[in-house]
Amino acid sequence: MAQRRHHYEHAFERYLRDHRVPYISVDEAKKSLMPTGVSLSARRGERSAPKLKNFDFVIYGEGGNLLVEIKGRRLPRVRLKDGSPAKPRMESWVTRDDVDAMRRWGELFGPGFEASFVFLYWCEDVPPDGLFVETLAHRGRWYTMRSIDVESYAGVMRERSRKWGTVSVPAEDFERLSRPLCVPGRLGSSADGMGYVREPIFERLGV
């Protein structure tokens, strides 16, 4: 595994490896992944070239490839009156710079690559059965995730904080537009009992 800064990225990379999803960590292959026309000085912040924020992973699939930016968020413990676990609100905020950079990367890589945010939620409680399609445990923490392509995100995003330059997606739109990354079964199959879940992007290899 790459030596990544955040436990969210560690957990996501472990998920990809465990489910045999082909990928490249951008930290490990920055130079070879730079599209034509984007210089290395752009990544080093030199004045001679425009600065373009890096993303985290390139994920490969038969139906298309993803350029992924991981967004780690924390899900608080929420209980119903009877004490049973309830679904907490999934925060979906990013910065405008995140959106602009990912849209630019999508343009640079061209057809066959889709720029996406993967929101990886660190759960303070074990995720309730049936509320999330994808859950994983890593180093004593529970996580669940949702993926949304950047163009869909940009189409419904709203300003969250002008001061901090952040935007977010209304909860109903996020549930409608986001989807699992990888679940058992064939690509394009539906997730039974999960009406708000769109089809997964990738199927697990060798299943």
Order of strands in the sheet with most strands? 1-2-3-5-7-6
Approximate shape: globular
Element order: H for helix, E for strand: HEHHEEEHEEEHEEHEE
Strand content: 25-35%
Number of domains: 1
Number of strands: 11
Please state the structural category: alpha+beta
What is the makeup of the main sheet? 6 strands, mixed
The helix fraction, in percent, is 10-25%
Intertermini distance = 23 Å
Q: Which key phrases capture this entry?
A:
six-stranded mixed beta sheet; alpha+beta; disordered C terminus; 6 helices; 207 residues; 24% helix; three-stranded antiparallel beta sheet
Description of the structure:
The chain is 24% helix and 28% strand. It contains 6 helices and 11 strands. The protein has a 6-stranded mixed beta sheet with strand order 1-2-3-5-7-6. It has a 3-stranded antiparallel beta sheet with strand order 4-9-8. A two-stranded parallel sheet has the order 10-11. Strand 8 and strand 9 (166-168) form a beta hairpin. The longest helix has 14 residues, at 96-109. The protein is globular and about 55 Å long. It starts with 6 loop residues before the first helix and ends with a strand.
